[in-house]
Amino acid sequence: MLLVDTHCHLTSSRFATDLPEVLARARAGRIHRIITIGTGITDAHAALALAEAHPDLIHAAAGLDPFSCHEAGDSIDAAFTALDTLLATGRLVAIGECGLEYHHEVCPHSVQAEHFARHLELARRHRLPVVVHVRDAFHDLLPILAAHRDVGGVIHSFSGDSVQARACLDLGWHLSINGMITYKGNDALREAVRLIPNDHLLVETDAPYLSPVPHRGKRNEPAHVALTAAAIAELRGERSEDLEAWTTFNACRLFKLPLPEGWG
User: Fold this and answer.
1) 1 pLDDT exceeds 70?
2) Taking CA 199 as the corner, what is the angle to CA 201 and CA 208, rounded to the nearest 5 degrees?
3) What is the CATH number of domain 3-255?
4) Is the four-CA dihedral 148, 45, 39, 155 of positive or negative sign?
5) pLDDT digits (tens, 9 = 90+) for 8-56
6) Fewer beta carbons below 10 Å: N end or C end of the chain?
7) Nearest CA among 186, 188, 154 for reference residue 169
8) Torsion of CA 198, 196, 223, 259, to 10 degrees
9) Bridge partner list, 155
10) Cβ 44 vs Cβ 80: under 8 Å
């Protein structure tokens, strides 16, 4: 079976010296496709360059995450115009990551909500799924999603509880799980993951961050998504091959990626 790492950051400087080896390990580790996320316009161009250099493995998404929006300052309208232009090329598989970040001090919450809504409007117009970043902000995220029911996508790096998971699922969103599922003390997350329907579950690394056990504390990379998938399958009492098949099919359907050879 093959896996899709639905969220990572291959443009990170932490991959600058050995990216070819990282990609070779991904291929050897049965990784079918990788979605690398461009955060901000400059990073979006770098992500697209990687996708075009490795079209059989890498795809790109791009958005103005809360940190990029904060950095843009008075140039935010120009940044959204540049993002709109990139989306219009048809070279991106999703818009994002974008969303709400309340853990760190970036833009005021009301401004973040406005920026997030602008992404959702772009997603509607370009008919693309959205990759959502949310940290300490579920209470404000859900009303925004409810107001844009004709837009869908994935809550990336989901770290909430069962109530939050059910609320997102009821609105039609996919939930993507990464190495945090392997960390001690994440019982609320594990309980939430048990209730996600097979057809709304995705896996990711968020590399170079959030390495699963036994690599916690070290740089993460796409090949490690297999460890997360195995942990989820064990938690849910499912066969690994079934969990892998579902998450791969879900990713290919949501992001319009080619299915593995012989599928379909």
Assistant:
1) no
2) 20
3) 3.20.20.140
4) positive
5) 999 999 999 999 999 999 999 999 999 999 999 999 999 999 999 999 9
6) C
7) 154
8) 30
9) 132, 175
10) no
Going across the sheet that includes 3-8, the strands are 3-8, 31-39, 58-63, 94-101, 130-135, 153-155, 174-177, 201-203
What are the DSSP E strand ranges found in 64-136?
Answer: 94-101, 130-135
CA distance 95 to 79: 14
Q: Which two tokens stand for residue 124?
A: 């509607």
List the structure tokens of 22: 């990282």
d(C-alpha 173, C-alpha 96), whole Å: 14
pLDDT tens-digit map of 147-172: 999 999 999 999 999 999 999 999 99
Q: Which of 250, 258, 255, 203 minimizes the C-alpha distance to 96?
A: 255
Alpha-carbon distance of 222 to 34, in angstroms, equals 7
Q: CA 87 to CA 97: how far, in whole Å?
A: 13
130-135 and 153-155 strand pairing: parallel
pLDDT one-digit tens code per residue, 60-113: 999 999 999 999 999 999 999 999 999 999 999 999 999 999 999 999 999 999
Which of helix, strand or coil describes residue 239?
coil
Which tokens in the block code for residue 74?
A: 């008075």
Which pLDDT does position 263 carry in this prediction? 85
Q: What are phi and psi of 35, to 5 degrees?
A: -105, 115
